[in-house]
Amino acid sequence: MTFLHPPKDNNEACTERTSDGSCVATNGDDKFLKCLFLNPHDTSNIPLIPVYSQSNASYSTLFRSSARNRRYLSPNNNSRKPKFLILPSHESHVQAAVICCKKHGLDLKVRSGGHDVEGLSYTSSDIDPFILVDLINYRNVAVNVEDRTAWVQAGATIGELYYRVGEKSSTLGFPAGFCPTVAVGGHFSGGGLADQIIDAEIANVEGKILSRKTMGKDLFWAIRGGGGASFGVVLSWKVKLVPVPHIVTAAMVERTLEQGATDLVYKWQFIADRLPGGTYIGLNCTVVNSNATRERRTVRVIFSILFLGNVDELLRLMEENFHELGLQQNDCTEMSWLESNIYFYYTVRSPLELLLDRDPMAKIYTKAKSDHVMVPRPKEGLEGLWSMLFANDKTVLKWTPYGEIPFPHRIGNIYNILYQVDWVDCSQNDWNGGEVMAYRKAKVWGTKYFKSNFERLVLVKTEVDPCNFFRSIQSIPPSHHCSQLTEEE
């Protein structure tokens, strides 16, 4: 790995410099920089901490590199961008950022992969300055085949995790979704996909690094689905890998309204979350041109199927559970589990190295929101959804079935619908305003999202971060207000 260094400057008035020539003066922002470069004190075996200010030539490129939503990339909104970028390559860099931000009264935000639709991890609507810790260079994956585990640093993408596991074993995998560019930092801590996480390392509000044993069971519980950014900076995760067969079967079957898509989606609601283990069927609904006539638009539903077994077994299972889809042998392709993650993202069999590409898609303007569905929607309701799609044909609906595993939204819900709308141009950026949520305000949305877990998360937050240092407009608040002076005050 190539380690970045603090940027050199042209300030002739600089009164103090680091060993590589970077300025460490004693006024304004430079007090914060001096604090960073003095933490840790022993730097003999630790690379210099990489810091970039808005005036640095590399700042804009680095800031944009992991941000995919163009709504938050306007060059004219420096007040809503970080004062400094820090790109850690060592855990001590994160410790220093936490200690020095707290000491000098600066807000801290953490970005792992950039799949942050609302930009909360790298922008701010507050006037107060903030620092961004971008974990793009903190992404090592260490796989242990013998005990079927892997330590994954928070900046690694799930594609990188899949690829590194596949390098070591063709019969081990990890269940974390079909989008390889999502980083594990936010995906594991906020997405509720933490069933196989067995340990973690987190930098707390004091800059101390805690493991599962030292952080305690309540904090370990909270960061696995409660949003790790509310409680500290999660540095790495230890995951339990799961066995997969040498061969899996994948298929993507398209059906339009003229081909009975409404009836098929209706039936899917009753069986998708109840299929035998090792079987997944998700839906993707969009508006396309009709094959019947070029002048007519229709809804196309793609049924994405992954089965941990061979084609013959899948065909038998589908005949028993979902024969209406009419799955045929020529719809199916046998491949390795690792190859299936490429297949579903790129829709064709492509080189496995594409899993290592963190940013293969062009940046777009996008907005997304999800609903959890408790009971099957009637056909009339589905037809209403299709009407809404026709009204805005840039919208995509993605349907994901839930299984019977612990996560508040899986209990009592049968599937999730993600509504996503993308566009390619915008005259003005849609910046979300807001304030840091107090407990009463946060409870309104918190109990809707986390259900009965919200109050428990608040208790954990109050215990580990009572003065709400780690915060955003969607973070878990402590139960009471805390007055705290910085050391500068």
Automatic annotation (TrEMBL):
Task: Please report the name of this protein according to its UniProt entry.
Answer: FAD-binding PCMH-type domain-containing protein
For this protein, the record's Pfam families field holds: BBE (PF08031), FAD_binding_4 (PF01565)
Reported cofactor(s): FAD
Question: Member of which family?
Answer: Belongs to the oxygen-dependent FAD-linked oxidoreductase family.
Organism whose genome encodes this protein: Papaver somniferum (Opium poppy)
Q: Which residues form a coiled coil?
A: none
Highest taxon above the source species: Eukaryota
Q: Tell me where in this chain the FAD-binding PCMH-type domain is found.
A: 78-244
Q: Which GO terms describe its molecular function?
A: FAD binding; oxidoreductase activity
Q: Which SUPFAM superfamilies match?
A: FAD-binding/transporter-associated domain-like
Which InterPro entries does this one have? BBE, FAD-bd_PCMH, FAD-bd_PCMH-like_sf, FAD-bd_PCMH_sub1, FAD-bd_PCMH_sub2, Oxid_FAD_bind_N
Looking up Gene3D superfamilies in the UniProt record yields: 3.30.465.10, 3.40.462.20, Uridine Diphospho-n-acetylenolpyruvylglucosamine Reductase, domain 2 (3.30.43.10)
Q: Where is this region: Disordered?
A: 1-20
Basic and acidic residues: bias regions: 1-19
Sorted UniProt keywords = FAD, Flavoprotein, Glycoprotein, Signal
Signal peptide start-end: none
